[in-house]
Amino acid sequence: MPELVPPARIRAAFSAAMSRMYRSEVPLYGDLLEIVAEVNARVLAADPALAASLAASGEQARLGEERHGAVRVGTAAELALLARIFAVMGMEPVGYYDLAPAGIPVHSTAFRATDPEALRESPFRIFTSLLRLELIADAELRMQAAAILAARRIVSDECLHLLDRAESEGGLDEDDAASFVAAALETFRWQGRALVDRPTYDRLLAAHRLVADIVAFPGPHINHLTPRTLDIDAAQAEMQRRGIAAKASIEGPPRRAAPVLLRQTSFHALSEPFAAVGEGEGSSHTARFGEIEQRGAALTPAGRALYDQCLAIGDFTPMPDDFAQLHSQGLAYARFVVDGGKMRAEPLTYEDFLPVSAAGIFRSNLGGEDAAGDYAGASSQEVFEAALGRAVLDPFALYAEAEERSAMAAEAR
After folding, report:
1. Which of 15, 111, 214, 388 is least surrounded by CB atoms within 10 angstroms?
2. Residue 312 lies in a domain
3. What is the Cα–Cα distance from 267 to 245, expressed in whole angstroms?
């Protein structure tokens, strides 16, 4: 029997293929990669201690390969299908994010690896959002959108065949893995055509720009792809220096000596031509953009509660700006390394997302920084998990387990 390819290798191959595709579709993404590479090189050169720490932990090796993508689907069946595809790559749904309170009619999860070693090998993530059709106020348009989505097929027969094989045989051999990556990639390609005529597109757009982005096109085209930087402020400044239309502000915590959670910025969405049904390539759609992120320490439930309090009052001084204090006060998770016979605690990287920041990024690329609808619908994690076909994993439990395993490994040395 042929040897099966480890899921992490399939994930790494898919991440690289996705990056190449998106760079060809959105050339400015290539500029972001250059900016991030230059900024990271400067940071590491200026701080040898940081470089040594990242190298010892494996964080530096993953830094250049790290990406997160974002896609949006319209139905429970589409969400469940993507979950099967990502499972072949060793990615599981972690966390639940309801963006409706921020005026975005979706709820989401992040598909990613959960084991620290697997994350070091390939930290690729996909932030995956499901449209909440019930939040479309116009009943007739809501029914029309449901019919459009029910009629489309987002995955090719070849991809489905390989997916069935992976599930029945417990994985894929080298040839099938390569074919699977190529076939799965097509699911997320921008195709430059709509499934609807221009008047229908305009009605969907009037309901919400994101509704049009999800419903009007053949599939869940990759919405953005995000490299990781060690200094997002420097990256933001370089974007502006190059004349790239960057967001006015960085989403997430303020700049800190001890970074926590996630900071994000982006350039504004591009206007891309597409052909509506019954016409040539005379229309344009604005949704896809480029993003940069900086990741800090994962916070414990107590740390997140303090962070949320600070966010609410707009003052982060109550949160210690020193990792040793954060950890000793039970506010942040750690991984442990042994150096010279001594064990020390270092930040455990935050692998997930922030709903407020995600909504801020989405809004800035859907018609302006203040563009937001009015959705009073309650959070619906149970509905989302029913669509997904399983419960999402608790990120706090994953961080606590990673810290415990790291401590046990360090003590055993």
Report:
1. 388
2. no
3. 5
**Rounded CA gap, 47 and 330, in Å?**
27
First CA to last CA distance, the chain: 38
Residue 318 lies in a domain: no
Angle at 66 between CA 54 and CA 187, to 5 degrees: 165
Going by C-beta distance under 8 Å and a sequence separation of 6 or more, which residues neighbour residue 311? 356
pLDDT digits (tens, 9 = 90+) for 384-399: 999 999 999 999 999 9
Type of residue at 152: R
> How far is it, in rounded angstroms, from Cα 77 to Cα 74?
9
Show the DSSP H helices in 47-155 as ranges: 48-57, 59-63, 76-88, 116-121, 139-151
Looking at residue 149, which CATH number applies to its domain?
Answer: 3.10.180.80
Q: Structural domain tally of the chain?
A: 1
Which residue segment(s) compose the domain that 27 sits in?
Answer: 7-298+333-411
Percent of the chain with pLDDT over 70: 94
**314-360 residue pLDDT tens:** 999 999 999 999 999 999 999 998 887 788 899 999 999 987 766 65
Residue 315 belongs to a domain: no
* Inside any domain, residue 282: yes
Q: Give the model's confidence band at 379: pLDDT under 50 very low, under 70 low, under 90 confident, else very high.
A: low
Q: What is the pTM of this model?
A: 0.92
